[in-house]
Amino acid sequence: MKQSNYKVAILSGDGIGPEVMAEAIKVLRAVEQRFAIKFTMQEALIGGAAIDGAGQPLPPQTLSLCQQSDAILFGSVGGPKWTGLAPDQQPERGSLLPLRKTFDLFCNLRPGQIYPAFAELSPLHPRVSSLGMDVLCVRELTGGIYFGEKGRGDDSAFDTQTYSKAEISRIAKVAFEAAMKRNRKVTSIDKANVLQTSILWREVVTEIAKDYPEVELEHMYIDNAAMQLIRSPQQFDVLLCDNLFGDILSDEIAAIAGSLGLLPSASLNGSGFGLYEPAGGSAPDIAGQGIANPIAQILSAALMLRYSFGQEAAAVAIEQAVQQCLEQGIVTRDIQPDSRYGTADVGDAVAAAIAAAA
Ligand code: NAI
Ligand code: MG
Protein backbone atom coordinates (compact mmCIF):
# COMPACT_ATOMS: atom_id res chain seq x y z
CA MET A 1 0.00 0.00 0.00
CA LYS A 2 1.21 3.49 -0.78
CA GLN A 3 2.23 5.42 2.30
CA SER A 4 0.89 8.95 2.58
CA ASN A 5 3.12 11.55 4.18
CA TYR A 6 1.66 14.72 5.66
CA LYS A 7 3.41 17.82 6.96
CA VAL A 8 1.76 19.16 10.09
CA ALA A 9 2.64 22.47 11.76
CA ILE A 10 2.40 21.96 15.52
CA LEU A 11 1.54 25.23 17.30
CA SER A 12 1.04 24.33 20.97
CA GLY A 13 0.86 27.84 22.42
CA ASP A 14 0.18 28.63 26.05
CA GLY A 15 -1.35 27.26 29.24
CA ILE A 16 -2.63 23.71 28.79
CA GLY A 17 -1.79 23.91 25.03
CA PRO A 18 1.56 22.06 25.25
CA GLU A 19 0.17 19.50 27.72
CA VAL A 20 -2.77 18.43 25.57
CA MET A 21 -0.75 18.71 22.34
CA ALA A 22 1.72 16.11 23.65
CA GLU A 23 -1.18 13.64 23.89
CA ALA A 24 -2.48 14.42 20.39
CA ILE A 25 1.04 13.76 19.03
CA LYS A 26 1.14 10.47 20.94
CA VAL A 27 -2.15 9.49 19.31
CA LEU A 28 -0.93 10.47 15.82
CA ARG A 29 2.13 8.25 16.37
CA ALA A 30 -0.22 5.37 17.21
CA VAL A 31 -2.12 6.10 13.97
CA GLU A 32 1.19 5.83 12.05
CA GLN A 33 1.75 2.36 13.52
CA ARG A 34 -1.63 1.11 12.37
CA PHE A 35 -2.22 2.85 9.02
CA ALA A 36 -0.04 3.56 5.99
CA ILE A 37 0.37 7.16 7.07
CA LYS A 38 3.41 9.17 8.12
CA PHE A 39 3.36 12.58 9.76
CA THR A 40 6.20 15.07 9.58
CA MET A 41 5.43 17.23 12.57
CA GLN A 42 7.33 20.47 13.12
CA GLU A 43 6.78 22.76 16.08
CA ALA A 44 6.83 26.55 16.10
CA LEU A 45 6.15 29.34 18.58
CA ILE A 46 2.71 30.94 18.71
CA GLY A 47 0.77 33.29 21.00
CA GLY A 48 2.19 34.27 24.38
CA ALA A 49 5.05 31.81 24.06
CA ALA A 50 6.02 33.53 20.79
CA ILE A 51 5.77 37.00 22.35
CA ASP A 52 8.18 35.85 25.06
CA GLY A 53 10.47 33.90 22.72
CA ALA A 54 10.43 35.93 19.49
CA GLY A 55 8.86 39.30 20.33
CA GLN A 56 5.55 38.84 18.49
CA PRO A 57 2.50 36.52 18.64
CA LEU A 58 2.87 35.22 15.05
CA PRO A 59 6.59 35.31 14.12
CA PRO A 60 7.53 35.10 10.40
CA GLN A 61 9.20 31.69 10.93
CA THR A 62 5.92 30.33 12.31
CA LEU A 63 3.92 31.72 9.39
CA SER A 64 6.34 30.26 6.86
CA LEU A 65 6.23 26.84 8.58
CA CYS A 66 2.41 26.97 8.25
CA GLN A 67 2.72 27.90 4.57
CA GLN A 68 4.94 24.89 3.97
CA SER A 69 2.60 22.51 5.83
CA ASP A 70 -0.51 20.55 4.81
CA ALA A 71 -2.39 21.51 7.97
CA ILE A 72 -2.02 23.30 11.31
CA LEU A 73 -2.65 21.57 14.61
CA PHE A 74 -3.19 24.43 17.04
CA GLY A 75 -3.29 24.25 20.85
CA SER A 76 -4.53 27.41 22.51
CA VAL A 77 -3.08 30.81 23.24
CA GLY A 78 -3.34 33.52 25.84
CA GLY A 79 -3.23 33.94 29.60
CA PRO A 80 -3.05 36.54 32.37
CA LYS A 81 0.63 37.26 31.66
CA TRP A 82 -0.18 39.01 28.36
CA THR A 83 -3.52 40.74 29.06
CA GLY A 84 -1.86 44.18 29.47
CA LEU A 85 -0.68 44.32 25.84
CA ALA A 86 -2.35 46.37 23.07
CA PRO A 87 -5.31 44.53 21.48
CA ASP A 88 -3.60 43.57 18.21
CA GLN A 89 -0.52 42.41 20.16
CA GLN A 90 -2.59 40.07 22.36
CA PRO A 91 -1.81 36.39 21.83
CA GLU A 92 -5.29 35.51 20.53
CA ARG A 93 -5.96 38.45 18.24
CA GLY A 94 -2.35 38.65 17.11
CA SER A 95 -2.13 35.01 16.04
CA LEU A 96 -5.49 33.41 15.24
CA LEU A 97 -7.00 36.32 13.30
CA PRO A 98 -3.99 36.76 10.96
CA LEU A 99 -3.83 32.97 10.43
CA ARG A 100 -7.54 32.91 9.48
CA LYS A 101 -6.97 35.83 7.12
CA THR A 102 -3.73 34.55 5.54
CA PHE A 103 -5.22 31.14 4.76
CA ASP A 104 -8.78 32.37 3.98
CA LEU A 105 -10.26 29.99 6.55
CA PHE A 106 -13.88 30.77 5.70
CA CYS A 107 -15.42 27.64 7.13
CA ASN A 108 -15.61 26.74 10.80
CA LEU A 109 -16.69 23.23 11.81
CA ARG A 110 -17.75 22.44 15.35
CA PRO A 111 -19.02 18.94 16.05
CA GLY A 112 -20.87 18.38 19.31
CA GLN A 113 -21.94 15.10 20.81
CA ILE A 114 -23.73 13.81 23.82
CA TYR A 115 -21.86 10.59 24.61
CA PRO A 116 -24.29 7.97 25.96
CA ALA A 117 -21.84 7.04 28.77
CA PHE A 118 -21.80 10.66 29.95
CA ALA A 119 -25.25 11.94 29.07
CA GLU A 120 -25.36 13.49 32.56
CA LEU A 121 -22.70 16.05 31.49
CA SER A 122 -25.40 17.68 29.38
CA PRO A 123 -27.53 20.28 31.16
CA LEU A 124 -30.55 18.99 29.23
CA HIS A 125 -33.19 16.97 31.03
CA PRO A 126 -32.31 13.22 31.04
CA ARG A 127 -35.53 12.57 29.12
CA VAL A 128 -33.89 14.48 26.22
CA SER A 129 -30.14 13.88 26.75
CA SER A 130 -30.61 10.09 26.96
CA LEU A 131 -31.67 10.20 23.30
CA GLY A 132 -28.21 11.55 22.43
CA MET A 133 -26.92 14.23 20.08
CA ASP A 134 -24.42 14.08 17.22
CA VAL A 135 -24.36 17.34 15.29
CA LEU A 136 -21.88 19.23 13.15
CA CYS A 137 -22.19 23.01 13.01
CA VAL A 138 -20.81 24.42 9.74
CA ARG A 139 -20.34 28.17 10.23
CA GLU A 140 -19.37 30.74 7.60
CA LEU A 141 -16.44 32.57 9.21
CA THR A 142 -15.19 35.41 7.01
CA GLY A 143 -18.33 37.23 5.80
CA GLY A 144 -21.69 38.53 6.98
CA ILE A 145 -22.52 41.14 9.57
CA TYR A 146 -19.19 40.96 11.44
CA PHE A 147 -17.36 42.20 8.35
CA GLY A 148 -19.97 44.51 6.75
CA GLU A 149 -19.98 48.29 6.69
CA LYS A 150 -20.60 49.71 10.15
CA GLY A 151 -20.97 53.15 11.60
CA ARG A 152 -21.84 55.21 14.62
CA GLY A 153 -23.59 58.57 14.91
CA ASP A 154 -24.60 60.44 18.07
CA ASP A 155 -27.99 58.81 18.41
CA SER A 156 -27.68 55.77 16.19
CA ALA A 157 -25.36 53.08 14.95
CA PHE A 158 -25.56 50.52 12.18
CA ASP A 159 -24.09 47.22 10.99
CA THR A 160 -24.75 45.73 7.60
CA GLN A 161 -24.85 42.18 6.33
CA THR A 162 -23.88 41.30 2.77
CA TYR A 163 -23.48 37.83 1.33
CA SER A 164 -22.58 36.99 -2.25
CA LYS A 165 -23.74 33.88 -4.09
CA ALA A 166 -20.10 32.74 -4.20
CA GLU A 167 -19.69 33.07 -0.42
CA ILE A 168 -22.87 31.11 0.24
CA SER A 169 -22.23 28.36 -2.28
CA ARG A 170 -18.71 27.60 -1.04
CA ILE A 171 -19.84 27.16 2.57
CA ALA A 172 -22.93 25.19 1.47
CA LYS A 173 -20.72 22.77 -0.48
CA VAL A 174 -18.65 22.09 2.64
CA ALA A 175 -21.85 21.32 4.57
CA PHE A 176 -23.16 18.89 1.94
CA GLU A 177 -19.76 17.18 1.57
CA ALA A 178 -19.65 16.77 5.35
CA ALA A 179 -23.19 15.38 5.40
CA MET A 180 -22.18 12.76 2.80
CA LYS A 181 -19.66 11.44 5.36
CA ARG A 182 -22.24 11.55 8.17
CA ASN A 183 -26.00 11.00 8.33
CA ARG A 184 -26.92 12.76 5.09
CA LYS A 185 -29.05 15.56 6.39
CA VAL A 186 -28.41 19.31 6.18
CA THR A 187 -30.48 21.83 8.12
CA SER A 188 -29.85 25.28 6.69
CA ILE A 189 -30.42 28.07 9.20
CA ASP A 190 -31.76 31.48 8.16
CA LYS A 191 -34.30 34.18 8.84
CA ALA A 192 -35.78 34.25 5.35
CA ASN A 193 -39.05 35.72 6.62
CA VAL A 194 -37.28 39.07 7.29
CA LEU A 195 -33.74 39.19 5.84
CA GLN A 196 -32.82 39.67 2.18
CA THR A 197 -29.49 37.90 2.71
CA SER A 198 -31.44 34.93 4.09
CA ILE A 199 -33.66 34.78 1.00
CA LEU A 200 -30.53 34.61 -1.18
CA TRP A 201 -29.00 32.10 1.25
CA ARG A 202 -32.03 29.81 0.86
CA GLU A 203 -31.98 30.09 -2.95
CA VAL A 204 -28.29 29.28 -3.25
CA VAL A 205 -28.38 26.40 -0.73
CA THR A 206 -31.39 24.89 -2.53
CA GLU A 207 -29.44 25.08 -5.81
CA ILE A 208 -26.32 23.43 -4.34
CA ALA A 209 -28.50 20.67 -2.83
CA LYS A 210 -29.36 19.48 -6.36
CA ASP A 211 -25.77 18.21 -6.66
CA TYR A 212 -26.32 16.06 -3.56
CA PRO A 213 -29.51 14.06 -4.15
CA GLU A 214 -28.58 11.61 -1.36
CA VAL A 215 -28.64 14.39 1.22
CA GLU A 216 -31.90 15.56 2.74
CA LEU A 217 -32.15 19.37 2.95
CA GLU A 218 -34.39 21.27 5.32
CA HIS A 219 -34.57 25.01 5.98
CA MET A 220 -35.19 26.29 9.48
CA TYR A 221 -35.53 29.75 10.99
CA ILE A 222 -32.83 30.60 13.52
CA ASP A 223 -35.28 31.19 16.36
CA ASN A 224 -36.92 27.82 15.82
CA ALA A 225 -33.51 26.11 15.52
CA ALA A 226 -32.38 27.57 18.86
CA MET A 227 -35.50 26.07 20.41
CA GLN A 228 -35.39 22.72 18.60
CA LEU A 229 -31.77 22.18 19.69
CA ILE A 230 -32.78 22.02 23.32
CA ARG A 231 -36.09 20.24 22.71
CA SER A 232 -34.83 17.42 20.50
CA PRO A 233 -31.19 17.77 19.40
CA GLN A 234 -31.18 14.22 18.02
CA GLN A 235 -33.15 15.43 14.96
CA PHE A 236 -30.09 17.26 13.56
CA ASP A 237 -27.05 16.07 11.59
CA VAL A 238 -25.33 19.02 9.85
CA LEU A 239 -26.35 22.59 10.68
CA LEU A 240 -25.38 25.11 7.98
CA CYS A 241 -25.15 28.66 9.33
CA ASP A 242 -23.98 32.13 8.40
CA ASN A 243 -21.38 33.82 10.60
CA LEU A 244 -23.72 35.37 13.20
CA PHE A 245 -26.20 32.49 13.55
CA GLY A 246 -23.32 29.98 13.61
CA ASP A 247 -21.55 31.88 16.38
CA ILE A 248 -24.62 31.59 18.56
CA LEU A 249 -25.68 28.04 17.71
CA SER A 250 -22.14 26.62 18.03
CA ASP A 251 -21.98 27.88 21.61
CA GLU A 252 -25.44 26.46 22.28
CA ILE A 253 -24.25 23.10 20.94
CA ALA A 254 -21.14 23.26 23.13
CA ALA A 255 -23.28 23.94 26.19
CA ILE A 256 -25.62 21.05 25.33
CA ALA A 257 -22.66 18.67 24.85
CA GLY A 258 -21.50 19.53 28.37
CA SER A 259 -17.72 19.78 28.61
CA LEU A 260 -15.40 22.17 26.80
CA GLY A 261 -12.62 19.61 27.20
CA LEU A 262 -14.29 17.25 24.71
CA LEU A 263 -14.99 19.62 21.83
CA PRO A 264 -12.74 19.94 18.76
CA SER A 265 -13.02 22.42 15.90
CA ALA A 266 -11.77 22.88 12.36
CA SER A 267 -11.31 26.01 10.24
CA LEU A 268 -11.01 25.27 6.52
CA ASN A 269 -10.42 27.15 3.28
CA GLY A 270 -11.91 24.70 0.82
CA SER A 271 -8.59 23.64 -0.71
CA GLY A 272 -7.95 20.96 1.92
CA PHE A 273 -5.84 23.18 4.14
CA GLY A 274 -7.14 23.67 7.65
CA LEU A 275 -6.42 24.80 11.20
CA TYR A 276 -7.55 22.39 13.91
CA GLU A 277 -7.93 23.37 17.55
CA PRO A 278 -9.91 22.62 20.71
CA ALA A 279 -13.03 24.75 21.21
CA GLY A 280 -11.75 25.85 24.64
CA GLY A 281 -8.89 28.15 25.56
CA SER A 282 -5.60 27.86 27.44
CA ALA A 283 -7.28 27.19 30.82
CA PRO A 284 -4.68 29.02 32.94
CA ASP A 285 -6.55 27.93 36.10
CA ILE A 286 -5.46 24.29 35.62
CA ALA A 287 -2.30 24.69 33.46
CA GLY A 288 0.82 22.87 34.62
CA GLN A 289 -1.03 20.37 36.80
CA GLY A 290 -1.31 17.51 34.31
CA ILE A 291 -5.09 17.34 34.71
CA ALA A 292 -6.34 19.05 31.52
CA ASN A 293 -8.58 16.97 29.31
CA PRO A 294 -6.67 16.15 26.08
CA ILE A 295 -9.70 14.78 24.21
CA ALA A 296 -10.64 18.04 22.44
CA GLN A 297 -7.07 18.25 21.09
CA ILE A 298 -7.04 14.55 20.13
CA LEU A 299 -10.40 14.85 18.35
CA SER A 300 -9.09 17.94 16.55
CA ALA A 301 -6.35 15.71 15.12
CA ALA A 302 -9.09 13.28 13.99
CA LEU A 303 -10.85 16.14 12.19
CA MET A 304 -7.54 16.98 10.48
CA LEU A 305 -7.30 13.40 9.19
CA ARG A 306 -10.88 13.59 7.91
CA TYR A 307 -11.10 17.06 6.39
CA SER A 308 -7.54 17.87 5.28
CA PHE A 309 -6.13 14.42 4.50
CA GLY A 310 -9.21 12.39 3.52
CA GLN A 311 -8.13 9.61 5.91
CA GLU A 312 -11.60 8.66 7.12
CA ALA A 313 -10.65 5.24 8.54
CA ALA A 314 -7.89 6.75 10.69
CA ALA A 315 -10.22 9.54 11.86
CA VAL A 316 -12.86 7.02 12.87
CA ALA A 317 -10.23 4.89 14.64
CA ILE A 318 -9.32 7.87 16.86
CA GLU A 319 -12.97 8.68 17.55
CA GLN A 320 -13.75 5.08 18.46
CA ALA A 321 -10.72 4.91 20.75
CA VAL A 322 -11.89 8.09 22.51
CA GLN A 323 -15.38 6.66 22.89
CA GLN A 324 -13.93 3.48 24.36
CA CYS A 325 -11.94 5.43 26.98
CA LEU A 326 -15.04 7.40 27.93
CA GLU A 327 -17.01 4.18 28.33
CA GLN A 328 -14.24 2.68 30.48
CA GLY A 329 -14.19 5.79 32.67
CA ILE A 330 -10.61 6.74 31.75
CA VAL A 331 -11.39 10.44 31.94
CA THR A 332 -10.02 13.60 33.53
CA ARG A 333 -11.58 15.49 36.44
CA ASP A 334 -13.62 17.88 34.32
CA ILE A 335 -15.67 14.81 33.35
CA GLN A 336 -15.54 12.93 36.65
CA PRO A 337 -14.48 15.07 39.64
CA ASP A 338 -13.08 12.13 41.67
CA SER A 339 -11.11 10.68 38.74
CA ARG A 340 -7.53 9.56 39.42
CA TYR A 341 -6.58 9.89 35.74
CA GLY A 342 -4.53 12.77 34.36
CA THR A 343 -3.83 14.20 30.91
CA ALA A 344 -1.14 11.65 30.00
CA ASP A 345 -3.21 8.68 31.25
CA VAL A 346 -6.01 9.58 28.86
CA GLY A 347 -3.57 10.06 25.95
CA ASP A 348 -1.91 6.72 26.73
CA ALA A 349 -5.29 4.96 26.86
CA VAL A 350 -6.46 6.43 23.53
CA ALA A 351 -3.16 5.50 21.85
CA ALA A 352 -3.33 1.98 23.31
CA ALA A 353 -6.93 1.54 22.14
CA ILE A 354 -5.90 2.48 18.59
CA ALA A 355 -3.04 -0.02 18.66
CA ALA A 356 -5.24 -2.77 20.19
CA ALA A 357 -7.90 -2.42 17.51
CA ALA A 358 -5.35 -3.16 14.76
P1 NAI B 1 -10.94 28.49 28.76
O1 NAI B 1 -11.64 27.71 27.72
O2 NAI B 1 -9.47 28.50 28.74
O3 NAI B 1 -11.41 27.98 30.22
C1 NAI B 1 -12.77 27.97 30.65
C2 NAI B 1 -12.95 26.86 31.72
O4 NAI B 1 -12.97 25.59 31.05
C3 NAI B 1 -11.83 26.83 32.73
O5 NAI B 1 -12.34 26.51 34.00
C4 NAI B 1 -10.93 25.72 32.23
O6 NAI B 1 -10.21 25.09 33.25
C5 NAI B 1 -11.94 24.78 31.57
N1 NAI B 1 -11.33 24.02 30.47
C6 NAI B 1 -11.08 24.47 29.20
N2 NAI B 1 -10.47 23.53 28.49
C7 NAI B 1 -10.31 22.46 29.31
C8 NAI B 1 -9.73 21.18 29.16
N3 NAI B 1 -9.17 20.79 28.00
N4 NAI B 1 -9.75 20.33 30.21
C9 NAI B 1 -10.30 20.70 31.37
N5 NAI B 1 -10.87 21.89 31.58
C10 NAI B 1 -10.87 22.77 30.56
O7 NAI B 1 -11.53 29.98 28.66
P2 NAI B 1 -11.13 31.31 29.46
O8 NAI B 1 -10.85 31.00 30.88
O9 NAI B 1 -12.19 32.27 29.12
O10 NAI B 1 -9.80 31.83 28.77
C11 NAI B 1 -8.49 31.52 29.23
C12 NAI B 1 -7.47 32.03 28.23
O11 NAI B 1 -7.61 31.32 26.99
C13 NAI B 1 -7.65 33.51 27.88
O12 NAI B 1 -6.37 34.09 27.79
C14 NAI B 1 -8.35 33.49 26.54
O13 NAI B 1 -8.04 34.62 25.79
C15 NAI B 1 -7.75 32.25 25.92
N6 NAI B 1 -8.59 31.63 24.88
C16 NAI B 1 -7.94 31.15 23.77
C17 NAI B 1 -8.63 30.53 22.76
C18 NAI B 1 -7.86 29.99 21.61
O14 NAI B 1 -6.67 29.81 21.69
N7 NAI B 1 -8.51 29.70 20.52
C19 NAI B 1 -10.09 30.38 22.82
C20 NAI B 1 -10.68 30.84 24.06
C21 NAI B 1 -9.94 31.46 25.03
MG1 MG C 1 -18.37 32.41 20.28
From TrEMBL:
EC top class, as a word: oxidoreductase
UniProt-annotated binding residues for Mg(2+): 223, 247, 251
UniProt entry keywords in alphabetical sequence: Amino-acid biosynthesis, Branched-chain amino acid biosynthesis, Cytoplasm, Leucine biosynthesis, Magnesium, Manganese, Metal-binding, NAD, Oxidoreductase
InterPro entries tied to this protein: IsoCit/isopropylmalate_DH_CS, IsoPropMal-DH-like_dom, Isopropylmalate_DH
Isopropylmalate dehydrogenase-like domain ranges (all copies): 7-350
Pathway in which the depicted protein is active: Amino-acid biosynthesis; L-leucine biosynthesis; L-leucine from 3-methyl-2-oxobutanoate: step 3/4
Pfam families, alphabetized: Iso_dh (PF00180)
Feature type site, description Important for catalysis: 146, 191
Keyword Oxidoreductase attached: yes
Residues the entry annotates as binding substrate: 100, 110, 139, 223
Known role: Catalyzes the oxidation of 3-carboxy-2-hydroxy-4-methylpentanoate (3-isopropylmalate) to 3-carboxy-4-methyl-2-oxopentanoate. The product decarboxylates to 4-methyl-2 oxopentanoate.
Subunit structure: Homodimer.
Protein family membership: Belongs to the isocitrate and isopropylmalate dehydrogenases family. LeuB type 1 subfamily.
Protein name: 3-isopropylmalate dehydrogenase
Organism in which the protein naturally occurs: Alkalimonas collagenimarina
Gene that this sequence comes from: leuB
